[in-house]
Design goal:
binds manganese (II) ion, 2 domains, about 575 residues, binds sulfoacetic acid, 29 strands, about 20% strand, alpha/beta, nine-stranded mixed beta sheet, Phosphoenolpyruvate Carboxykinase, domain 1, Phosphoenolpyruvate Carboxykinase, domain 3
Length: about 575
Amino acid sequence: MASPIEEWVEESARLTTPKKIVWCNGSESQHHQLIDEMLADGTLIGLDSKTYPNCYLHRSDPSDVARTEQITFICSRLQNDAGPTNNWMSPADAKEKVSGLFRWAMKDRTMYVVPYLMGPAESPYSKVGVEITDSPYVVASMYIMARIGRVPLERLGNSADFVPGLHSLGDLSPDRRYVLHFPEEKLIWSIGSGYGGNALLGKKCFALRIASWMAREQNWMAEHMLIVGLTGPSGKTHYIAAAFPSACGKTNLAMMVSALENEGYKVTTVGDDISWMHVASDGTLRAINPEAGFFGVAPGTNKKTNPNVMTAVRSNSIFTNVGLTPSGEPWWEGINGAAPAGTIDWRGRPHMGGSELVAQANSRYTVPARQTPSISPRFEDPEGVPISAFLFGGRRARVAPLVYEARNWAHGVFVAATMASETTAAITGQTGITRRDPMAMLPFCGYNMARYFGHWLEMGPKIPRAPRIFHVNWFRKGADGKFLWPGYGENVRVLKWIVERVEEKSDAVETPIGFVPTREALTLDGLDIQRSTIEELLRVDPADWIAELDSTRQFFGRFGPALPQEIWKQHEALQHRLSRVTVPAS
Ligand code: SAT
Ligand code: MN
């Protein structure tokens, strides 16, 4: 008798009619055979084998370079289960509309069956997915980003406990492109795109959208968070999970080189994008990184902003939509000075200088996580790492101080739910527009976000040793429009204060928005920064925060009666605390 996975493969083959089916076993030899085929047909270009051994460049269709939120749908039975911030289609409508696009889609192509495991091999928290795809580039990327082949197959056996994901490039036409999630069936359908976030179904589709739905049903948390360890001079390591919207330096923070290394503070990387967290028997919240690789934005990455990843990408990596130098090395804006003469741009054309980009703005590297020198010794720990603190942050030129601690769990959930970031020119062409992105989950929550806030509120009391909740802002600007805080490796100074708060060892002042460090509580030795700058970084301006209350009231209003009352209670309480410190205009 056919196993559930075999049955699903047969069913998918009847629909998409591939010319051949290949089961991926995760072996190096099979991976290299696939790479050789892609080198032969031009899907991949080999990079310099001395400086970038086993590294490749892929150029995507120019219309297919980023996630496409407008064609991403949650197909729950009830529209209200998707909520006001997700696109919704009924499962029946979605299947009818999109099965037509899958029909015969693999006619002249090979169908690859990619069983994959999200999470460490031996972890009770890991989960199996199976992706069917007609893109060998997707298979080679999944080889880096997840544990594929034998390991998940053995774990699965004859069980039906896997998340199926059907993917086809289709004809790559943007108007026949869909990324569909059927949360009740735990099923994913994606057609018309080969781009990472749309096509590597283990990442955003499974590990966030489907997993967030499962997590709510099963009392755990699937979050868009990096995970880092901060080891102090005593040798004790605290783990921190942090959520930021895009373009806020998440990957750089995850792989940061501590500016306090001489003082004995070292940062290690567990994950750069996603965290799955369960309450453990010792009362801690344990986090695993479900991924095995990093899929990071290349432009702006260099030896200064992220030396660890620059070392990591020197082998076994795939670069997508970056430039190619005459010596066969990858190149992107910000890597190091000007592009060498003779560099080819991301579309494969000679770069003529001027303002045309060499690398596409969302060009990427895909690299095995274990290759970063900063990788945590507990990266593969099946039990996960205990989380001491959550960090939420955004890009705010004003309003938010460098760091503050929430008053308690419920207040922390409110802080996270009001998270916002100002857009950068790269995203919209308009700068300084404040966008709310609660928990950085707006595009990734697989259900109604009002209920997601409710899930967060309910989780706190279930975690005996719950993480403390903090908000950070590396991007505050002075009157001259310049950043006040140096950022990057210096951010460790803020992490140190956070860990000392967790250990009840550092000072803070209570303000209406929460606890802000005293100037003395921040370790600033060796940093050339003026006293007035620090004061400005830590300042809480009640007038700014009162304006913020209006904006958050409007945002929460979108969720109607589904919004937990506790969120409104927190909003009122903040208003009350602010009104006590502001002198009314007479
Ligand atoms: O764009 S992706 O979803 O592939 C990656 C990311 O946004 O973190
Ligand atoms: Mn992400």
